Amino acid sequence: MKSTLEELAVFGGPVAFERPLHVGAPNIGSRRHLFQRLNIMLDARWLTNDGPYVQQFEQAIRQQIGIKHCIGTCNATVALEILVRAAGLSGEVIVPAFTFVATAHALRWVGLTPVFADIHPSSHTLDPAAVEAAITPRTSGIMAVHLWGRPCDVDGLEAVAARHDLVLAFDAAQAVGSSYRGKPIGQRGLAEVLSFHATKIVNSFEGGAIVTNDDELAERVRRMRCFGFSDYDTVTALGINGKMTEAAAAMGLTSLESLSTFVDANKSRHELYGRLLSGTPGLTLLPYDERERCNYQYVVVEIDEPSVGLSRDELQRVLFAENILARRYFYPGCHRVEPYASEPPTGGWRLPVTDRIAGRVLCLPTGTAASLAAIRQICGLIRLTLARAHDVRRRLQAREVAL
C-alpha cells in the first residue's frame, strides 16, 4: 500500500496495477454452460431469426420482471429507436442530459428533438418539476432514465405525463435486477428499454430489449425489428433489422443464471468502498436504497473540490496513472456534446444541477473483475491523494508547466 506522494505513479512511482482496472469489465458466468449452448446452436444451424435461445431469453426476462412482453434486440440503442417510432412519438421528447449519449442520439436519429431537463441533485435522475417546466406544445413524450441501477422518480414523472397527456417511457439500460417500490424495474410507463451490453450486470455480448404490457405496442415492435414482416413472407409496415442473435441470447441466458452472484459481488464491493472511504473529506459515496432490490452496478463518488482542494479531474489523473480507469460518467452532459451543443434553444441550456454533478462524479472499478484486495488498494490511493490534496495539486501543476 502506498503511503507517500513519491510512490504515486503520476509522480514517478511504480504503477499499482499491471493490467488496467475498468469500471465495467464484463461479467462472464459459466463458460461450460455458454459453450454447451453455442455447440447446440451450431449443430442446429439456427443462428438468428427468433431462434429457441432468443425465445427462452425473452421468456426468462418476462418472468423475472413480471411483464407480458419482452422483445429482444441487437442492442439497446436500436431498441430505443424502435420504441419511439412504435409509440408514435413526434416533435419533442424530454430527456435528461445526464445520461449516456445514446438516449438522446436515439431520439435524434429518428427525427425527434431531445429537450433536456435538469436532474435532482441526490438521485442524479430527472426532476419532475424540471420536466414539467420544459413541456411545450410540441412535446409528445418523456424518456426518463434509471441511472446507476437506481430508479428515477417514477410516480412523479407519471403524474406529470398524465397531467399533460404525454407518453412516458424509460431507458432502464442500467437497471436490470433493481426495483422501484418493491416491484422489478421494467413494469412502468408505456414501455422500458433494457440493455444487455457487455458492461451491464446481465450481458448478451451486445443486446437489448423492449418490455411492455401493451399488446398493440409489442406487436408493432416485433414487426419493426424484423423489416416490417408480419408473417413468413408478408411485409405490412416499415421496419429495420434489429433482431437479437442466437449467440447473444445464449450468452444472455448464461449471464442471467448468475445474476444473483453478480449482484452479491457488486454489493460486497460497494460496501467495502463505503467502509474504507467513510469520513474521507470532500468525498461522498452515492448510496443505494436498501429497502429496494439493487444491482449495485456502479460505485459513484462525488468530489467536492472547494472543500478538499482537488478537482475530480485531478483525482482521475492520479488514478489513471495507476492503471485505475475511473470514469467521469456522464461528463460533460449530452447538452454539451454535438450536435446538441451547437443547436441550443434560445437562451441556451440552463441545467445548473446537471452541470454541477457532471463536474463532480467519478465512477470506480467494481464487479467480478475487481478483487476486494484491488478495491482496498484503490481506496488507499484515494485517501492518500485527498489527504495531501494541496501538495498533489501543486505537483500536478508543476509537471504541467514542465511539460
Sequence-ordered SSE layout with sheet pairings:
Layout: E1 21-22, H1 31-44, H2 52-65, E2 69-73, H3 76-86, E3 92-96, H4 102-109, E4 113-117, H5 128-134, E5 139-145, H6 154-164, E6 167-171, E7 179-180, E8 183-184, E9 191-195, E10 208-212, H7 215-224, H8 246-257, H9 259-277, E11 283-285, E12 299-303, H10 305-308, H11 312-321, E13 324-325, H12 352-358, E14 361-364, H13 372-387, H14 389-402
Helix pairs in contact: 1-8, 2-8, 3-4, 9-13
Beta-strand percentage?
5-15%
C-alpha end-to-end distance: 29 Å
Class from secondary-structure proportions: alpha/beta
Shape: globular
Which value, in Å, is the CA radius of gyration? Answer: 22 Å
Overall number of structural domains:
2
Describe the structure.
This protein is of the alpha/beta class. It has 2 domains: 5-25 and 259-326 and 365-402, Aspartate Aminotransferase, domain 1, CATH 3.90.1150; 31-257, Type I PLP-dependent aspartate aminotransferase-like (Major domain) (Aspartate Aminotransferase, domain 2, 3-Layer(aba) Sandwich), CATH 3.40.640.10. Helices cover 39% and strands 14% of the residues. The chain is built from 14 helices and 14 strands. The chain has helices at 31-44, 52-65, 76-86, 102-109, 128-134, 154-164, 215-224, 246-257, 259-277, 305-308, 312-321, 352-358, 372-387, 389-402; strands at 21-22, 69-73, 92-96, 113-117, 139-145, 167-171, 179-180, 183-184, 191-195, 208-212, 283-285, 299-303, 324-325, 361-364. Strands 2-10-9-6-5-3-4 form a 7-stranded mixed beta sheet, sandwiched between helices. β3 (92-96), α4 (102-109) and β4 form a beta-alpha-beta unit. α1 (31-44) packs antiparallel against α8. The longest helix is centred in the middle third of the chain and has 19 residues, at 259-277. The chain is globular, with a radius of gyration of 22 Å. The mean pLDDT is 97.
